[in-house]
Amino acid sequence: MRLWIICLLAFCLPHLALSAQPKPTWRAATPAELEAFLPARAPVEKERIETELRTATGITDDHGHTIAAVVLITAGYAADGKYSHYLLTQSPLHLGTEITLPAGAYVLGWSRGPDGLLVHIFDAATGAERGNVAAHASKQPIRIESFKIWPPADRPTIQIGRFLLPYTLEP
C-alpha cells in the first residue's frame, strides 16, 4: 500500500507543480517600454538602419519578455523594397502555421498576393530568408493600423493594414 501511495505521489506532484506555475500574461507595451527595448538604429546585415520609434508596436509579459516591431527608414540602403520593419522578440513566435521564429532579431517585408499579403521574413544579422507566410484580409470590420502586434488575449495577430497574420507564443 505504501509503495502504491509513493508511486501515486511521484507521478502527481510534478504535474501539479507544473500546472501551478502561472502562464505569462501578455499586454500591449507602453511607448516608454518600446523606446527602451527597440534600438534607434537597428543592426541589419552590415548596416545600422535608423528606426522610426513613433511607429513602434509590441507586447510584453509579466516575466519581462517583449515582442516588438518598428519601421525601418530604408531610403538609401540596399534593403529598400526588400523589408520595412524590424522585429525583435524575446520569446519564440509561431507565425501562421508555416514559420517558427526563435527569440531574436528579424526584418519583415511584404508583397501583395492574390489572397492578401505575402509576408517575407529575414534574419536581421545575416539577411538570410526565414520564410514567407500569408496575411489575409480581416473578415470583420477593424480599425486599419499600418502595423500592430496585438496581445494574444485580445487578438493573437499581427495586423498589417487591413490584413491579419495569426501568431502563437510558446507557453
TrEMBL record:
Record's keyword annotation contains Signal: yes
UniProt signal peptide: 1-19
Keywords: Signal
UniProt superkingdom: Bacteria
UniProt keyword Signal, yes or no: yes
Name of the protein: Uncharacterized protein
